């Protein structure tokens, strides 16, 4: 998975966007996703234990492709790579963040929400980007319109996508996967209800028509 030349976008139809509050939840959570057929985690840098969670998954669950999300600064990108992240995702981008992401040894999906931002990302060498926040920024109608002017760019839309709306995104030619937090509900993680997470992961196999 994610060998040289491989694309983050082609790993799984739904990339789990994960928030971890307790480092000890990281490995069982990642293993549950993998057991459900989703061996990928975008671990967001939104809690104090996020880097530790990335480190633990990289060390103890090597069958899972661990990435870091919510990267907004070059320093966070460096720290995530150092912790073992194999891909990086940002919610948005600046020219300096794009340049930094492009200089790293792991692939990145920079965040975009407008045509100008997609063009800026492409200028920096990225033809695969995140579309965030997808539902709030125009959803499938936006992506359909972008396909006619920038047909060479592929997207991972995230933000507000649900199991009900995911199939309409995944049916678009310029969408390879979607991201979502619904695979790892806070209450399931807090209760250690890994069976529920296995089931939610397994259900994503049905979403690509
Ligand atoms: C992200 O960073 O991609 C979003 O927080 C995921 O959005 P969702 O929680 O609406 O799925």
From TrEMBL:
It comes from the Bacteria. The keyword Lyase applies. Pathway: Carbohydrate acid metabolism; 2-dehydro-3-deoxy-D-gluconate degradation; D-glyceraldehyde 3-phosphate and pyruvate from 2-dehydro-3-deoxy-D-gluconate: step 2/2. PROSITE patterns: ALDOLASE_KDPG_KHG_1, ALDOLASE_KDPG_KHG_2. Pfam families: Aldolase. Its EC number is 4.1.2.14. Keywords: Carbohydrate metabolism, Lyase, Schiff base. It catalyses: 2-dehydro-3-deoxy-6-phospho-D-gluconate = D-glyceraldehyde 3-phosphate + pyruvate. The keyword NAD does not apply. NCBIfam families: eda, PRK05718.1. Belongs to the KHG/KDPG aldolase family. Homotrimer. This is 2-dehydro-3-deoxy-phosphogluconate aldolase. It comes from Nocardioides fonticola. The gene is eda.
